[in-house]
């Protein structure tokens, strides 16, 4: 990769003086394109320039700017960069054991963007990702939406252009058995868990009321970061990403969202197949996981391959996520393939790892499909995205390659090997 | 591998003989079932296009192209795109580590002592465990399962058919291996060993003690664990040594050289650094799940290792291993698929969970489709390795044990 980037930048210097290499237009010809927003295009043409997609269409229908870097990708398939709505790469962490709810804990203060797990994700074609803290708390903290462009700081990887990185994310909540602990600060039962969450939201409503009613700042309550985090949720600035497995826990999450009016995305949703109509009725999207076998705990003992199909048929917006390291970022495309195996439509399966995920992160105007004006995030595949034989050959973010399988240093991130995932320093692409 | 203790195979032969003598009219020498395959992987030679398998009672009666094998009109006929031998999970803990992952269903590792060769897998295997049915529906008719890595000697392993609701009915081989672990994974749960060197010293002492007792003519039966170690020292039961890091693999080879037992390397995440030594020592490898997470002692695992070992002539099977969390059991077919996609030739990938697995484990009646073999078959609606292919029918001992596309 370093070599490739160096060559690219040398070429840029030689050919067009001040312009950066990624500022030259690139045209990809002869591949099968999966725009997601429309039907696949055989022998398609994709034009990217200045970090965005300039044109997508069948050969002959697309104007290609002069001076474009030509890529003949005959026999390849191109789809949008993958969107992973739930990942623990980058050593992400949230709150500690002192409380069950940490609306003040920000994952941006924990993420290590130089960790090699980010390169594993790039090798897996993931270009947009929600880094999310764990499920051992009712509320483990504020999540972060990142773009996996090259960069050495969390700000450089922010997925939000319009707001600072500290506001670029949602809020992680969980119910079921993971947040239950034998400790006074944590719930011991499901009812207690729901009561604790409700108490906090009620307190936040009261805090907000006092703040709004204060005639001057001296009357306002002292600034409370925990309450501020919850107000972000109550006022729709943060979507709640809710870890939940069992059918009744899924409905509890929906009930909380309706009581307090927050935006909700269900995560994991292992028994979603039992309450698909209720999820559809509530108009709540589901980011699901598929595992090779059920179990690991009681509440996941009825996790099945067909959840994606059942939710699709019920009209629920469905995404898959990796939950890396629970499933491996390099093999993210296995998940929608397993969905198809169990009857999900191919179109919904491909959308589930791209545009559907983008919608769940509120980033659907920027990423998730190959459409003019969107970020030039895409992957070049050796064949059918849902085949075991297919390799991700290149991953591009905003018109710049961040993974190239033909480069041995990059390929190691896709295959593993001796000390490949040791400290990130030697692998930073800068 | 061991036939010196329980003799389940003899029992089932007896049972079959009794049925025959019982004069059941259907138990005549007439195939009751036939399987037609667009592609039949016998694993004894090239795949047969348009192949036929005839099944008589529990065993395979005939195998060949449709042009050469007559199917009796009375036989029930199954058709499939691809047929393989019933799949073998070469090394897992299914049946001992249950779906709920709570103490009541986790019997794969006792941590009261670091060396417990006396622990029998058959005393812990639950043939009604949901995950056993789960892997059966995905084509697995045989599981080599038992004590997990995690102690210097965690106990014995055994081999079971996934059919049968009692241990006796499922058991194929009562002591397939004795499971050893080297390196940090053998230290985490014990006060001692606390280091690699101490762990190996403890193992060597135990093996020397067993050897001395054997040489001194002490009768068997006094010490159950020592009896089993003597089986290992006599070459009657192989040592299955889990070693992931390259220097732990070296230690396993060194122990094998010192004590002369039959060695199967287990896990072996860094085997690609030791390929020549492993090939030279003529030791087979039951490799870690291809998708094992790259952390802890498997931090340096690679998708390409199975292919590298195969190219070096090392016999390779691909295991499901033991997972502390999820997936609570892996699926060896999926693990072999990823190895195949990363350099293991197609036939070798299929062999890694059929014929090669059987050969490494000393299982003679499974792993191939040939006359006289147990009639275990997996019927697929497409390429067995493809993500979107289903396993539609599973036969175990000539009986349909699953008949729904999974």
UniProtKB/TrEMBL annotation, chain A:
Any one Gene Ontology molecular-function term assigned to this protein's record: hydrolase activity, acting on carbon-nitrogen (but not peptide) bonds
Superkingdom per UniProt: Bacteria
Family annotation (InterPro entries): Amidohydro_3, Metal-dep_hydrolase_composite, Metal_Hydrolase, Metallo-dep_Hydrolase
Signal sequence coordinates: 1-21
Keywords of this entry: Signal
Residues covered by the Amidohydrolase domain: 291-403
Protein name per UniProt: Imidazolonepropionase-like amidohydrolase
